[in-house]
């Protein structure tokens, strides 16, 4: 468990909120069987968070195999997550890439998204909700994946992501703090100051990390947003190293983690 304590710009004085963050489970195979998903859920519940945020890439980074848990199975385990302000999710690139039907039609719904919604976990895709929490009102926004169709040839003029930050920001009706869930951290570079905190995964901390540097990071900014707490121009980003592995089943210097963010 990796803990961050911070008071972002504009956070109300004297108000505290505990966020548990799960990212990049990549369920399937010997590294993330269903039993490990259940154990992770148990660990998160012991933290007694106010809010649980799931940052995408629930499925393995390969075609689904017969022995992999069905989406309904891992979603049922995640449904045991307990938090008074709720549990919310965004989807990651592999939740799109490994969904043949969604790739064929260049649109949702995805199997992962349907499984989460059926299990009672809302998936926020270019959508914002105003929540009442122990720290007062809070806006929670989820960005559509920025690389949803990056592996396909697209019709001319079609973007390879489904993210729409301007439309998402247009949903905010007051100045309550705003937390943005975005699977890929690259959106942070151009995000407005109105966003109190951005939470991301995707990079796995580089998955191999030596002396704070990773030789390969799936980001156009390289190591700039590879891992941890980043503060730029008074804005805050936290990038989780996630829990599973992608492509090569290796982690070195970037251990799997549950993230606990204590705001205020």
Q: How many E strands?
A: 11
Strand order of the largest sheet: 5-6-7-8-10-9
Q: What is the count of helical runs?
A: 6
- Terminal residue distance: 19 Å
What class do helices, strands and sheet pairing give? alpha/beta
Q: What's the overall geometry?
A: globular
Q: Portion of residues in helices?
A: 10-25%
Strand residue content: 15-25%
Order of helices and strands: EEHEHEHHHEEHEEEEE
Radius of gyration: 17 Å
User: Which spans have pLDDT < 50 for at least 5 consecutive residues?
Assistant: none
**Could you tell me the mean pLDDT?**
94
For the sheet with most strands, the description reads:
6 strands, mixed
Q: How are the elements arranged and paired?
A:
Layout: E1 2-6, E2 17-22, H1 34-46, E3 51-54, H2 71-78, E4 87-89, H3 93-97, H4 100-105, H5 111-118, E5 127-133, E6 136-142, H6 165-169, E7 178-181, E8 197-200, E9 228-232, E10 235-239, E11 259-263
Parallel strand pairs: 1-11, 2-3, 3-4, 6-7, 7-8, 8-10
Antiparallel strand pairs: 2-11, 5-6, 9-10
State the main characteristics.
globular; six-stranded mixed β-sheet; five-stranded mixed β-sheet; 264 residues; alpha/beta
Description:
By secondary structure, this protein is α/β, with parallel strands linked by helices. The chain is built from six helices and eleven strands. The chain has helices at 34-46, 71-78, 93-97, 100-105, 111-118, 165-169, and strands spanning 2-6, 17-22, 51-54, 87-89, 127-133, 136-142, 178-181, 197-200, 228-232, 235-239, 259-263. The strands form two sheets. A six-stranded mixed beta sheet has the order 5-6-7-8-10-9. Helix 6 links the parallel strand 6 (136-142) and strand 7 (178-181). The relative contact order is 0.21. The model has no long low-confidence stretch (mean pLDDT 94).
